[in-house]
Amino acid sequence: MKSRLFTNLTIAVLALSVVLAGSSPALAKSSSKSGGTVTFALPPGSLPTYIFPFVSGPNSNNIDLFQFTPFMWRPLYWFGKGNQAGINYSQSVGQAPVYSNGGRTVTVNMNRNYKWSDGQPVTNRDVELWMNIFSAEKANYLAYSVGSIPDDITSMSFPASTPYQFSLTFNKAYSHLWLLYNQLSQITPIPQHAWDRTSATGAVGNYDLTVAGATAVYTFLNAQSSKEATYASNPVWKTVDGPWHLSAFSPSTGYAAYVPNPSYGGPGKPKIAKFEEIPFTSDTAEFDALRSGQLDYGYLPSEDISQEKYFTSKGYQVAPWTDFGFNDFFVNFLSPSVGPIFQQLYVRQALQTLVNQPQISKDIYHGTAYPTYGPVPVQPPNPYISKAVKDNPYPYSVSGAKKLLSSNGWAVHPGGTDTCAKPGSGAGQCGAGITNGEALSFTETVATGSAPFTAEVEAIQSSWSEAGIHVTLHQESPDQIFAGLEPCSNGNAGCNWQIVNFGSPGETPTYSPEYLPTGGPWFATNGANNVQGYSNRTMDAKIAATETNSSPSAVQAFGTYAAEQLPNIWQPDYDYQLSVISPKLHGAVPQDPNLNLYPQNWTLSS
Length: 606
What we know:
Elements: H1 9-19, E1 32-33, E2 37-41, H2 62-66, H3 69-72, E3 79-81, E4 84-87, E5 98-100, E6 105-109, H4 124-136, E7 153-157, E8 165-170, H5 176-183, H6 192-195, H7 211-225, E9 244-249, E10 256-260, E11 274-278, H8 283-291, E12 297-299, H9 308-313, E13 317-321, E14 328-331, H10 339-342, H11 345-353, H12 357-364, E15 369-370, H13 387-390, H14 398-406, E16 410-411, E17 419-420, E18 441-447, H15 451-466, E19 470-476, H16 478-484, E20 499-501, H17 520-523, H18 537-548, H19 552-565, E21 569-570, E22 573-574, E23 577-581, E24 585-586, E25 603-605
Parallel strand pairs: 2-11, 18-19, 18-20
Antiparallel strand pairs: 1-25, 3-4, 5-6, 6-8, 7-8, 9-10, 10-11, 12-23, 13-23, 14-20, 14-21, 15-22, 16-17, 24-25
Helix pairs in contact: 1-8, 4-7, 11-14, 18-19
Protein backbone atom coordinates (compact mmCIF):
# COMPACT_ATOMS: atom_id res chain seq x y z
CA MET A 1 0.00 0.00 0.00
CA LYS A 2 1.10 3.54 -0.61
CA SER A 3 3.53 4.85 1.99
CA ARG A 4 4.61 8.49 2.10
CA LEU A 5 6.67 9.42 5.15
CA PHE A 6 8.99 12.27 4.29
CA THR A 7 12.14 10.25 4.92
CA ASN A 8 15.15 9.09 2.95
CA LEU A 9 14.82 11.98 0.52
CA THR A 10 18.50 11.81 -0.32
CA ILE A 11 18.23 8.14 -1.22
CA ALA A 12 15.29 8.83 -3.53
CA VAL A 13 17.08 11.65 -5.33
CA LEU A 14 20.25 9.58 -5.74
CA ALA A 15 18.27 6.64 -7.09
CA LEU A 16 16.50 8.95 -9.51
CA SER A 17 19.73 10.49 -10.77
CA VAL A 18 21.00 7.05 -11.76
CA VAL A 19 18.06 6.30 -14.03
CA LEU A 20 17.04 9.73 -15.29
CA ALA A 21 18.66 12.44 -17.30
CA GLY A 22 17.41 15.90 -16.44
CA SER A 23 14.98 17.54 -18.86
CA SER A 24 13.29 20.90 -19.02
CA PRO A 25 9.53 21.27 -18.58
CA ALA A 26 9.51 24.13 -21.06
CA LEU A 27 6.96 24.00 -23.85
CA ALA A 28 8.02 22.42 -27.13
CA LYS A 29 6.45 22.04 -30.54
CA SER A 30 4.15 19.01 -30.47
CA SER A 31 5.55 17.04 -33.39
CA SER A 32 4.73 13.44 -32.40
CA LYS A 33 7.40 10.84 -33.06
CA SER A 34 8.22 7.22 -32.39
CA GLY A 35 10.88 6.21 -29.92
CA GLY A 36 12.09 7.91 -26.77
CA THR A 37 11.79 7.02 -23.10
CA VAL A 38 8.79 7.85 -20.91
CA THR A 39 9.21 8.09 -17.14
CA PHE A 40 6.31 7.33 -14.79
CA ALA A 41 6.31 7.96 -11.03
CA LEU A 42 5.50 5.11 -8.69
CA PRO A 43 3.85 6.07 -5.39
CA PRO A 44 6.25 6.04 -2.42
CA GLY A 45 6.48 2.65 -0.77
CA SER A 46 4.44 0.83 -3.43
CA LEU A 47 6.80 -1.18 -5.57
CA PRO A 48 6.56 -4.22 -7.85
CA THR A 49 7.04 -7.25 -5.61
CA TYR A 50 5.59 -10.30 -7.40
CA ILE A 51 5.82 -11.09 -11.09
CA PHE A 52 3.87 -14.35 -11.48
CA PRO A 53 0.32 -13.36 -12.53
CA PHE A 54 -1.19 -15.97 -10.16
CA VAL A 55 -0.72 -13.79 -7.12
CA SER A 56 -1.83 -14.20 -3.52
CA GLY A 57 -3.34 -11.39 -1.44
CA PRO A 58 -0.41 -11.05 1.00
CA ASN A 59 2.03 -10.88 -1.93
CA SER A 60 0.19 -8.28 -3.95
CA ASN A 61 -0.28 -4.54 -4.15
CA ASN A 62 -1.86 -2.19 -6.68
CA ILE A 63 1.37 -1.85 -8.65
CA ASP A 64 1.70 -5.63 -9.10
CA LEU A 65 -1.92 -6.01 -10.14
CA PHE A 66 -2.35 -3.08 -12.51
CA GLN A 67 1.01 -1.59 -13.45
CA PHE A 68 3.40 -4.54 -13.60
CA THR A 69 2.21 -7.99 -14.66
CA PRO A 70 -0.49 -6.81 -17.16
CA PHE A 71 2.23 -5.16 -19.25
CA MET A 72 3.61 -8.64 -19.87
CA TRP A 73 0.69 -11.07 -19.51
CA ARG A 74 -2.77 -10.13 -20.71
CA PRO A 75 -5.85 -11.38 -18.86
CA LEU A 76 -8.53 -13.24 -20.79
CA TYR A 77 -10.83 -10.24 -20.40
CA TRP A 78 -9.77 -6.62 -20.09
CA PHE A 79 -11.76 -4.17 -18.00
CA GLY A 80 -11.46 -0.44 -18.39
CA LYS A 81 -12.41 1.64 -21.40
CA GLY A 82 -11.54 5.30 -21.35
CA ASN A 83 -12.71 6.65 -18.00
CA GLN A 84 -15.25 3.85 -17.43
CA ALA A 85 -14.78 0.56 -15.59
CA GLY A 86 -16.69 -1.88 -17.83
CA ILE A 87 -15.64 -4.70 -20.16
CA ASN A 88 -13.39 -3.77 -23.08
CA TYR A 89 -13.55 -6.50 -25.72
CA SER A 90 -11.20 -4.65 -28.05
CA GLN A 91 -8.39 -5.14 -25.49
CA SER A 92 -9.39 -8.70 -24.55
CA VAL A 93 -7.89 -12.05 -25.52
CA GLY A 94 -11.37 -13.58 -25.21
CA GLN A 95 -14.34 -12.67 -27.35
CA ALA A 96 -17.83 -12.19 -25.89
CA PRO A 97 -18.82 -15.41 -24.06
CA VAL A 98 -21.57 -17.59 -25.50
CA TYR A 99 -24.02 -19.30 -23.12
CA SER A 100 -25.76 -22.65 -23.59
CA ASN A 101 -27.09 -25.57 -21.54
CA GLY A 102 -29.63 -23.36 -19.81
CA GLY A 103 -26.95 -20.80 -19.05
CA ARG A 104 -24.71 -23.25 -17.20
CA THR A 105 -22.10 -23.67 -19.96
CA VAL A 106 -19.96 -20.79 -21.15
CA THR A 107 -17.99 -21.06 -24.39
CA VAL A 108 -15.20 -18.60 -25.12
CA ASN A 109 -13.59 -18.05 -28.50
CA MET A 110 -10.12 -16.56 -28.31
CA ASN A 111 -8.61 -13.79 -30.40
CA ARG A 112 -6.22 -15.51 -32.80
CA ASN A 113 -3.93 -12.48 -33.10
CA TYR A 114 -2.30 -13.01 -29.73
CA LYS A 115 0.94 -14.95 -29.62
CA TRP A 116 3.77 -15.47 -27.20
CA SER A 117 7.02 -13.59 -27.63
CA ASP A 118 8.68 -16.77 -28.95
CA GLY A 119 6.13 -16.96 -31.75
CA GLN A 120 3.85 -19.64 -30.30
CA PRO A 121 0.11 -18.84 -30.45
CA VAL A 122 -1.92 -18.16 -27.32
CA THR A 123 -4.39 -21.06 -27.18
CA ASN A 124 -6.84 -22.81 -24.91
CA ARG A 125 -3.97 -24.92 -23.56
CA ASP A 126 -2.61 -21.77 -21.94
CA VAL A 127 -6.00 -21.18 -20.33
CA GLU A 128 -6.05 -24.81 -19.21
CA LEU A 129 -2.71 -24.44 -17.43
CA TRP A 130 -4.08 -21.46 -15.51
CA MET A 131 -7.29 -23.28 -14.59
CA ASN A 132 -5.45 -26.42 -13.46
CA ILE A 133 -3.14 -24.39 -11.22
CA PHE A 134 -6.16 -22.44 -9.99
CA SER A 135 -8.00 -25.64 -9.10
CA ALA A 136 -5.00 -27.08 -7.26
CA GLU A 137 -3.84 -23.90 -5.52
CA LYS A 138 -7.00 -21.82 -5.13
CA ALA A 139 -6.19 -20.99 -1.52
CA ASN A 140 -3.10 -19.15 -2.74
CA TYR A 141 -4.98 -16.89 -5.15
CA LEU A 142 -5.83 -13.36 -4.05
CA ALA A 143 -9.47 -13.30 -5.21
CA TYR A 144 -10.56 -16.81 -4.24
CA SER A 145 -13.70 -17.14 -2.12
CA VAL A 146 -15.19 -20.45 -1.03
CA GLY A 147 -17.83 -21.54 -3.54
CA SER A 148 -16.64 -19.15 -6.22
CA ILE A 149 -14.43 -20.01 -9.19
CA PRO A 150 -13.06 -22.68 -9.51
CA ASP A 151 -15.38 -24.35 -6.95
CA ASP A 152 -18.45 -23.56 -9.04
CA ILE A 153 -17.11 -25.27 -12.18
CA THR A 154 -18.26 -28.86 -12.74
CA SER A 155 -16.40 -29.55 -15.99
CA MET A 156 -13.95 -27.92 -18.39
CA SER A 157 -13.24 -28.60 -22.06
CA PHE A 158 -10.10 -27.52 -23.90
CA PRO A 159 -10.28 -29.44 -27.21
CA ALA A 160 -7.06 -29.72 -29.18
CA SER A 161 -9.13 -29.77 -32.37
CA THR A 162 -10.32 -26.22 -31.71
CA PRO A 163 -7.32 -24.64 -29.97
CA TYR A 164 -8.87 -21.16 -29.87
CA GLN A 165 -12.01 -22.24 -28.04
CA PHE A 166 -12.82 -23.63 -24.60
CA SER A 167 -15.89 -24.26 -22.48
CA LEU A 168 -16.60 -24.14 -18.76
CA THR A 169 -19.72 -25.68 -17.24
CA PHE A 170 -20.89 -24.22 -13.94
CA ASN A 171 -22.90 -25.89 -11.20
CA LYS A 172 -25.94 -23.73 -11.94
CA ALA A 173 -27.10 -20.87 -14.12
CA TYR A 174 -25.56 -17.67 -12.83
CA SER A 175 -26.04 -14.07 -13.84
CA HIS A 176 -24.22 -13.52 -17.13
CA LEU A 177 -22.99 -10.20 -15.80
CA TRP A 178 -21.53 -11.80 -12.69
CA LEU A 179 -19.93 -14.66 -14.65
CA LEU A 180 -18.15 -12.26 -16.97
CA TYR A 181 -17.20 -9.58 -14.45
CA ASN A 182 -16.33 -11.77 -11.45
CA GLN A 183 -15.51 -15.28 -12.71
CA LEU A 184 -14.14 -15.27 -16.26
CA SER A 185 -12.39 -12.02 -15.33
CA GLN A 186 -10.03 -13.98 -13.08
CA ILE A 187 -8.50 -16.05 -15.89
CA THR A 188 -5.12 -15.19 -17.40
CA PRO A 189 -3.66 -17.42 -20.13
CA ILE A 190 -0.08 -18.37 -19.24
CA PRO A 191 2.45 -20.05 -21.59
CA GLN A 192 1.97 -23.79 -21.12
CA HIS A 193 4.73 -24.59 -23.61
CA ALA A 194 7.24 -22.66 -21.46
CA TRP A 195 5.92 -22.77 -17.89
CA ASP A 196 4.54 -26.29 -17.48
CA ARG A 197 7.63 -27.49 -15.66
CA THR A 198 8.67 -28.35 -12.13
CA SER A 199 12.26 -27.10 -12.17
CA ALA A 200 14.41 -24.62 -14.06
CA THR A 201 16.41 -27.39 -15.72
CA GLY A 202 13.60 -29.91 -16.21
CA ALA A 203 11.76 -30.43 -19.45
CA VAL A 204 8.39 -28.87 -20.16
CA GLY A 205 5.63 -31.46 -19.91
CA ASN A 206 1.96 -31.85 -19.15
CA TYR A 207 2.40 -31.90 -15.40
CA ASP A 208 -0.62 -29.68 -14.82
CA LEU A 209 -3.01 -32.42 -15.97
CA THR A 210 -2.84 -33.95 -12.48
CA VAL A 211 -3.48 -32.11 -9.23
CA ALA A 212 -0.08 -33.11 -7.86
CA GLY A 213 1.59 -31.96 -11.08
CA ALA A 214 -0.24 -28.63 -11.09
CA THR A 215 0.87 -28.07 -7.51
CA ALA A 216 4.46 -28.83 -8.47
CA VAL A 217 4.28 -26.36 -11.36
CA TYR A 218 2.84 -23.69 -9.08
CA THR A 219 5.55 -24.35 -6.48
CA PHE A 220 8.22 -23.87 -9.12
CA LEU A 221 6.74 -20.66 -10.55
CA ASN A 222 6.06 -19.22 -7.11
CA ALA A 223 9.66 -19.92 -6.10
CA GLN A 224 10.92 -18.17 -9.24
CA SER A 225 8.71 -15.20 -8.44
CA SER A 226 10.33 -14.90 -5.00
CA LYS A 227 13.69 -14.23 -6.67
CA GLU A 228 13.14 -10.56 -7.40
CA ALA A 229 16.73 -9.89 -8.39
CA THR A 230 16.28 -12.20 -11.42
CA TYR A 231 13.05 -10.71 -12.77
CA ALA A 232 14.71 -9.08 -15.76
CA SER A 233 17.07 -11.99 -16.52
CA ASN A 234 15.15 -15.16 -15.64
CA PRO A 235 14.20 -17.01 -18.87
CA VAL A 236 10.86 -17.97 -17.32
CA TRP A 237 9.65 -14.38 -17.42
CA LYS A 238 10.83 -13.77 -20.99
CA THR A 239 7.82 -15.53 -22.53
CA VAL A 240 5.09 -12.87 -22.64
CA ASP A 241 2.05 -12.05 -24.74
CA GLY A 242 1.66 -8.44 -23.59
CA PRO A 243 3.08 -5.37 -25.30
CA TRP A 244 6.14 -5.14 -23.05
CA HIS A 245 9.23 -7.04 -21.89
CA LEU A 246 10.83 -6.27 -18.54
CA SER A 247 14.34 -5.09 -19.39
CA ALA A 248 15.59 -3.94 -15.96
CA PHE A 249 14.44 -4.28 -12.37
CA SER A 250 15.87 -3.29 -9.00
CA PRO A 251 14.29 -5.12 -6.05
CA SER A 252 15.96 -2.74 -3.59
CA THR A 253 14.38 0.40 -5.06
CA GLY A 254 11.53 -0.88 -7.24
CA TYR A 255 12.84 0.72 -10.42
CA ALA A 256 11.50 -1.10 -13.49
CA ALA A 257 12.12 -0.57 -17.20
CA TYR A 258 10.20 -2.05 -20.11
CA VAL A 259 10.91 -2.34 -23.82
CA PRO A 260 8.46 -3.30 -26.58
CA ASN A 261 7.61 -6.93 -27.27
CA PRO A 262 7.95 -7.10 -31.08
CA SER A 263 5.70 -10.19 -31.21
CA TYR A 264 2.76 -8.51 -29.47
CA GLY A 265 -0.41 -9.23 -31.43
CA GLY A 266 -2.93 -7.15 -29.55
CA PRO A 267 -4.13 -3.59 -30.23
CA GLY A 268 -1.79 -0.67 -29.79
CA LYS A 269 1.75 -1.57 -30.82
CA PRO A 270 4.24 0.31 -28.62
CA LYS A 271 5.55 3.47 -30.23
CA ILE A 272 7.95 4.62 -27.53
CA ALA A 273 11.26 2.80 -27.20
CA LYS A 274 11.26 2.45 -23.43
CA PHE A 275 8.99 2.92 -20.45
CA GLU A 276 10.41 3.42 -16.94
CA GLU A 277 8.64 3.23 -13.58
CA ILE A 278 10.54 5.43 -11.14
CA PRO A 279 10.37 4.72 -7.39
CA PHE A 280 10.32 7.34 -4.65
CA THR A 281 10.63 7.20 -0.89
CA SER A 282 8.48 10.28 -0.27
CA ASP A 283 6.03 12.69 -1.87
CA THR A 284 8.63 15.43 -1.48
CA ALA A 285 11.14 13.54 -3.63
CA GLU A 286 8.53 12.87 -6.32
CA PHE A 287 7.37 16.48 -6.33
CA ASP A 288 10.92 17.79 -6.65
CA ALA A 289 11.57 15.47 -9.61
CA LEU A 290 8.29 16.47 -11.21
CA ARG A 291 8.96 20.21 -10.84
CA SER A 292 12.47 19.88 -12.22
CA GLY A 293 11.13 18.20 -15.38
CA GLN A 294 12.55 14.75 -14.69
CA LEU A 295 9.19 12.99 -14.96
CA ASP A 296 6.84 12.69 -17.92
CA TYR A 297 3.95 11.32 -15.88
CA GLY A 298 3.84 12.04 -12.17
CA TYR A 299 1.37 13.16 -9.56
CA LEU A 300 0.71 16.22 -7.45
CA PRO A 301 0.63 15.41 -3.71
CA SER A 302 -2.46 16.77 -1.97
CA GLU A 303 -0.30 18.96 0.27
CA ASP A 304 1.08 20.62 -2.90
CA ILE A 305 -2.29 21.22 -4.56
CA SER A 306 -1.54 24.96 -4.64
CA GLN A 307 1.15 24.22 -7.24
CA GLU A 308 -1.37 23.09 -9.87
CA LYS A 309 -1.33 26.47 -11.63
CA TYR A 310 2.45 26.35 -11.88
CA PHE A 311 2.26 23.15 -13.92
CA THR A 312 -0.66 24.18 -16.10
CA SER A 313 1.17 27.41 -16.89
CA LYS A 314 4.04 25.30 -18.23
CA GLY A 315 1.71 23.33 -20.49
CA TYR A 316 1.33 20.28 -18.24
CA GLN A 317 -2.02 18.51 -18.07
CA VAL A 318 -3.32 18.04 -14.52
CA ALA A 319 -5.97 15.32 -14.42
CA PRO A 320 -7.65 13.50 -11.51
CA TRP A 321 -7.30 9.72 -11.83
CA THR A 322 -10.48 8.16 -10.45
CA ASP A 323 -10.21 4.75 -8.79
CA PHE A 324 -13.14 2.29 -9.08
CA GLY A 325 -12.90 1.11 -5.50
CA PHE A 326 -13.63 2.01 -1.90
CA ASN A 327 -11.72 2.84 1.26
CA ASP A 328 -11.95 1.35 4.71
CA PHE A 329 -9.81 0.04 7.53
CA PHE A 330 -9.84 -3.29 9.27
CA VAL A 331 -10.87 -4.18 12.79
CA ASN A 332 -9.91 -7.69 13.86
CA PHE A 333 -13.04 -9.66 14.73
CA LEU A 334 -10.94 -12.68 15.74
CA SER A 335 -8.32 -10.93 17.88
CA PRO A 336 -7.81 -12.97 21.06
CA SER A 337 -7.72 -9.73 23.06
CA VAL A 338 -10.26 -7.36 21.48
CA GLY A 339 -12.19 -9.46 18.96
CA PRO A 340 -15.31 -9.72 21.16
CA ILE A 341 -15.44 -5.93 21.38
CA PHE A 342 -15.29 -5.44 17.61
CA GLN A 343 -17.97 -8.09 17.13
CA GLN A 344 -20.46 -5.70 18.75
CA LEU A 345 -22.20 -3.67 16.06
CA TYR A 346 -22.75 -0.74 18.43
CA VAL A 347 -18.96 -0.48 18.98
CA ARG A 348 -18.35 -0.32 15.25
CA GLN A 349 -21.13 2.24 14.94
CA ALA A 350 -19.44 4.37 17.60
CA LEU A 351 -16.12 4.11 15.79
CA GLN A 352 -17.76 5.01 12.47
CA THR A 353 -19.74 7.91 13.95
CA LEU A 354 -16.45 9.52 14.98
CA VAL A 355 -14.92 9.49 11.48
CA ASN A 356 -15.68 12.99 10.21
CA GLN A 357 -15.38 12.24 6.51
CA PRO A 358 -16.61 15.57 5.08
CA GLN A 359 -14.19 17.55 7.24
CA ILE A 360 -11.25 15.23 6.52
CA SER A 361 -11.95 15.43 2.78
CA LYS A 362 -12.13 19.23 2.84
CA ASP A 363 -9.46 20.23 5.33
CA ILE A 364 -6.80 17.55 4.85
CA TYR A 365 -7.17 16.47 1.22
CA HIS A 366 -8.36 19.84 -0.15
CA GLY A 367 -11.05 18.31 -2.32
CA THR A 368 -9.01 15.41 -3.71
CA ALA A 369 -10.89 12.98 -1.41
CA TYR A 370 -14.59 12.39 -0.96
CA PRO A 371 -16.70 10.65 1.70
CA THR A 372 -17.62 6.99 1.18
CA TYR A 373 -20.08 5.07 3.31
CA GLY A 374 -19.94 1.59 1.85
CA PRO A 375 -18.14 -0.77 -0.53
CA VAL A 376 -19.86 0.31 -3.77
CA PRO A 377 -17.77 2.99 -5.52
CA VAL A 378 -19.32 6.42 -5.77
CA GLN A 379 -16.89 7.39 -8.56
CA PRO A 380 -17.06 7.09 -11.48
CA PRO A 381 -20.89 7.17 -11.73
CA ASN A 382 -22.38 3.68 -12.00
CA PRO A 383 -25.78 1.99 -11.62
CA TYR A 384 -24.89 0.14 -8.40
CA ILE A 385 -24.95 3.05 -5.94
CA SER A 386 -27.76 2.89 -3.37
CA LYS A 387 -29.11 5.76 -1.28
CA ALA A 388 -27.35 4.43 1.84
CA VAL A 389 -24.01 4.51 0.03
CA LYS A 390 -24.63 8.04 -1.23
CA ASP A 391 -25.82 9.31 2.13
CA ASN A 392 -24.27 8.77 5.56
CA PRO A 393 -25.94 6.20 7.84
CA TYR A 394 -23.72 7.36 10.71
CA PRO A 395 -23.19 11.14 10.64
CA TYR A 396 -20.38 12.52 12.75
CA SER A 397 -21.48 12.96 16.35
CA VAL A 398 -19.40 12.79 19.52
CA SER A 399 -22.55 12.82 21.65
CA GLY A 400 -24.04 10.07 19.53
CA ALA A 401 -20.97 7.87 20.02
CA LYS A 402 -21.04 8.46 23.78
CA LYS A 403 -24.71 7.50 23.92
CA LEU A 404 -24.09 4.29 21.95
CA LEU A 405 -21.43 3.23 24.42
CA SER A 406 -23.11 4.31 27.65
CA SER A 407 -26.40 2.67 26.69
CA ASN A 408 -24.55 -0.59 26.15
CA GLY A 409 -22.89 -0.86 29.52
CA TRP A 410 -19.73 1.26 29.21
CA ALA A 411 -18.53 3.85 31.65
CA VAL A 412 -17.58 6.68 29.30
CA HIS A 413 -14.49 8.77 30.14
CA PRO A 414 -13.94 11.48 27.49
CA GLY A 415 -10.23 12.09 27.00
CA GLY A 416 -9.51 8.93 28.99
CA THR A 417 -10.41 5.29 28.43
CA ASP A 418 -13.90 3.81 28.61
CA THR A 419 -14.39 0.62 30.62
CA CYS A 420 -17.07 -2.03 30.68
CA ALA A 421 -19.27 -1.42 33.72
CA LYS A 422 -22.03 -3.89 32.86
CA PRO A 423 -20.64 -7.15 31.49
CA GLY A 424 -22.98 -9.65 29.93
CA SER A 425 -24.87 -10.28 26.72
CA GLY A 426 -28.26 -8.87 27.69
CA ALA A 427 -29.84 -5.55 26.81
CA GLY A 428 -27.81 -2.60 28.06
CA GLN A 429 -24.75 -4.79 28.67
CA CYS A 430 -21.34 -4.76 26.98
CA GLY A 431 -21.78 -7.98 25.03
CA ALA A 432 -20.63 -11.58 24.90
CA GLY A 433 -16.99 -12.18 25.76
CA ILE A 434 -16.37 -8.71 27.23
CA THR A 435 -15.28 -8.77 30.87
CA ASN A 436 -15.92 -6.36 33.73
CA GLY A 437 -13.51 -3.41 33.59
CA GLU A 438 -12.29 -4.25 30.10
CA ALA A 439 -11.09 -1.11 28.32
CA LEU A 440 -11.80 0.41 24.93
CA SER A 441 -8.08 0.65 24.26
CA PHE A 442 -6.62 -0.45 20.93
CA THR A 443 -3.47 -0.33 18.83
CA GLU A 444 -3.88 0.80 15.23
CA THR A 445 -1.20 -0.08 12.70
CA VAL A 446 -1.07 2.56 9.96
CA ALA A 447 0.88 2.88 6.76
CA THR A 448 3.80 5.29 6.68
CA GLY A 449 4.72 7.75 3.99
CA SER A 450 1.86 10.20 3.43
CA ALA A 451 1.68 13.37 5.52
CA PRO A 452 -2.04 13.94 4.76
CA PHE A 453 -2.85 10.32 5.58
CA THR A 454 -0.96 10.62 8.86
CA ALA A 455 -2.97 13.78 9.59
CA GLU A 456 -6.16 11.87 8.79
CA VAL A 457 -5.51 8.97 11.19
CA GLU A 458 -4.42 11.41 13.88
CA ALA A 459 -7.65 13.39 13.41
CA ILE A 460 -9.70 10.21 13.76
CA GLN A 461 -7.65 9.20 16.80
CA SER A 462 -8.46 12.58 18.39
CA SER A 463 -12.19 12.20 17.66
CA TRP A 464 -12.24 8.72 19.18
CA SER A 465 -10.57 10.11 22.29
CA GLU A 466 -13.43 12.58 22.78
CA ALA A 467 -15.68 9.59 23.44
CA GLY A 468 -13.13 7.74 25.59
CA ILE A 469 -11.91 5.35 22.90
CA HIS A 470 -8.15 5.23 23.38
CA VAL A 471 -6.15 4.29 20.28
CA THR A 472 -2.35 4.12 20.03
CA LEU A 473 -0.96 4.58 16.52
CA HIS A 474 1.86 2.35 15.33
CA GLN A 475 3.40 3.06 11.93
CA GLU A 476 4.82 0.46 9.56
CA SER A 477 5.68 0.46 5.88
CA PRO A 478 2.99 -0.93 3.58
CA ASP A 479 5.19 -3.95 2.77
CA GLN A 480 5.57 -4.70 6.49
CA ILE A 481 1.83 -4.49 6.98
CA PHE A 482 1.17 -6.78 4.03
CA ALA A 483 3.70 -9.32 5.27
CA GLY A 484 2.05 -9.60 8.67
CA LEU A 485 -1.59 -9.32 7.64
CA GLU A 486 -2.90 -12.78 6.87
CA PRO A 487 -6.47 -14.06 6.76
CA CYS A 488 -7.40 -14.72 10.35
CA SER A 489 -8.46 -17.90 12.02
CA ASN A 490 -8.90 -18.34 15.73
CA GLY A 491 -5.57 -18.50 17.49
CA ASN A 492 -3.16 -18.20 14.57
CA ALA A 493 -0.09 -15.97 14.81
CA GLY A 494 -1.50 -13.52 12.24
CA CYS A 495 -4.35 -12.49 14.55
CA ASN A 496 -2.38 -10.39 17.02
CA TRP A 497 -3.17 -7.11 15.25
CA GLN A 498 -6.19 -5.05 16.35
CA ILE A 499 -6.82 -2.23 13.85
CA VAL A 500 -5.00 -1.88 10.52
CA ASN A 501 -5.25 1.10 8.20
CA PHE A 502 -3.20 1.19 5.00
CA GLY A 503 -5.76 3.19 3.05
CA SER A 504 -3.52 6.05 2.00
CA PRO A 505 -4.14 7.65 -1.42
CA GLY A 506 -3.39 5.27 -4.28
CA GLU A 507 -3.65 2.10 -2.21
CA THR A 508 -7.33 1.72 -1.46
CA PRO A 509 -9.13 -1.51 -2.47
CA THR A 510 -9.90 -1.58 -6.19
CA TYR A 511 -12.37 -3.96 -7.79
CA SER A 512 -10.10 -6.36 -9.63
CA PRO A 513 -10.05 -9.12 -10.76
CA GLU A 514 -13.69 -9.14 -9.61
CA TYR A 515 -15.04 -6.05 -11.34
CA LEU A 516 -18.67 -6.17 -10.26
CA PRO A 517 -18.73 -4.35 -6.88
CA THR A 518 -20.17 -7.20 -4.81
CA GLY A 519 -17.44 -7.34 -2.15
CA GLY A 520 -17.14 -11.13 -1.92
CA PRO A 521 -13.36 -11.33 -1.41
CA TRP A 522 -13.49 -8.72 1.37
CA PHE A 523 -16.73 -9.45 3.22
CA ALA A 524 -17.90 -12.99 2.46
CA THR A 525 -17.15 -15.58 5.10
CA ASN A 526 -13.67 -16.98 4.30
CA GLY A 527 -13.20 -14.46 1.46
CA ALA A 528 -9.62 -14.26 0.22
CA ASN A 529 -9.18 -10.67 1.40
CA ASN A 530 -11.33 -11.05 4.52
CA VAL A 531 -8.32 -10.76 6.80
CA GLN A 532 -10.46 -9.40 9.62
CA GLY A 533 -12.44 -12.65 10.01
CA TYR A 534 -15.84 -11.04 9.43
CA SER A 535 -18.68 -13.56 9.09
CA ASN A 536 -22.36 -12.72 8.68
CA ARG A 537 -24.94 -15.05 7.13
CA THR A 538 -27.09 -12.20 5.86
CA MET A 539 -24.06 -10.57 4.24
CA ASP A 540 -23.20 -13.89 2.59
CA ALA A 541 -26.77 -14.13 1.29
CA LYS A 542 -26.67 -10.56 -0.08
CA ILE A 543 -23.41 -11.32 -1.87
CA ALA A 544 -24.80 -14.62 -3.19
CA ALA A 545 -27.87 -12.82 -4.58
CA THR A 546 -25.61 -10.72 -6.83
CA GLU A 547 -24.39 -13.96 -8.43
CA THR A 548 -27.78 -14.97 -9.83
CA ASN A 549 -29.59 -11.66 -10.23
CA SER A 550 -28.37 -9.47 -13.10
CA SER A 551 -30.30 -6.44 -11.86
CA PRO A 552 -28.30 -3.58 -10.32
CA SER A 553 -30.75 -3.74 -7.41
CA ALA A 554 -28.98 -6.87 -6.09
CA VAL A 555 -25.68 -5.00 -5.84
CA GLN A 556 -27.47 -2.01 -4.34
CA ALA A 557 -28.97 -4.23 -1.63
CA PHE A 558 -25.52 -5.60 -0.79
CA GLY A 559 -24.07 -2.08 -0.63
CA THR A 560 -26.82 -0.86 1.66
CA TYR A 561 -26.38 -3.74 4.08
CA ALA A 562 -22.60 -3.33 4.17
CA ALA A 563 -22.95 0.41 4.80
CA GLU A 564 -25.15 -0.34 7.79
CA GLN A 565 -23.38 -3.40 9.21
CA LEU A 566 -19.81 -2.07 9.04
CA PRO A 567 -17.76 -5.18 8.23
CA ASN A 568 -14.96 -2.62 8.25
CA ILE A 569 -14.90 1.09 9.08
CA TRP A 570 -15.39 3.41 6.11
CA GLN A 571 -13.17 6.44 5.54
CA PRO A 572 -12.74 8.99 2.73
CA ASP A 573 -11.82 7.60 -0.64
CA TYR A 574 -9.42 9.43 -2.91
CA ASP A 575 -8.60 9.89 -6.51
CA TYR A 576 -5.84 7.39 -7.18
CA GLN A 577 -3.74 10.44 -7.83
CA LEU A 578 -3.86 13.92 -9.31
CA SER A 579 -1.79 13.17 -12.38
CA VAL A 580 0.61 15.72 -13.84
CA ILE A 581 1.45 14.89 -17.45
CA SER A 582 4.19 16.51 -19.47
CA PRO A 583 3.16 18.51 -22.56
CA LYS A 584 5.44 16.27 -24.62
CA LEU A 585 3.58 13.08 -23.61
CA HIS A 586 0.47 12.23 -25.61
CA GLY A 587 -2.16 9.51 -25.15
CA ALA A 588 -2.07 9.26 -21.35
CA VAL A 589 -5.68 10.43 -20.86
CA PRO A 590 -8.40 9.47 -20.26
CA GLN A 591 -7.17 7.50 -17.25
CA ASP A 592 -8.51 4.03 -16.54
CA PRO A 593 -10.51 3.75 -13.26
CA ASN A 594 -9.30 0.16 -12.93
CA LEU A 595 -5.80 1.69 -12.63
CA ASN A 596 -4.48 0.13 -15.83
CA LEU A 597 -1.82 1.95 -17.82
CA TYR A 598 -1.53 1.91 -21.62
CA PRO A 599 2.05 2.99 -22.41
CA GLN A 600 1.76 1.18 -25.75
CA ASN A 601 -0.59 4.00 -26.79
CA TRP A 602 1.73 6.81 -25.79
CA THR A 603 3.88 9.01 -28.00
CA LEU A 604 6.41 11.75 -27.32
CA SER A 605 6.89 15.13 -28.89
CA SER A 606 10.35 16.44 -29.63
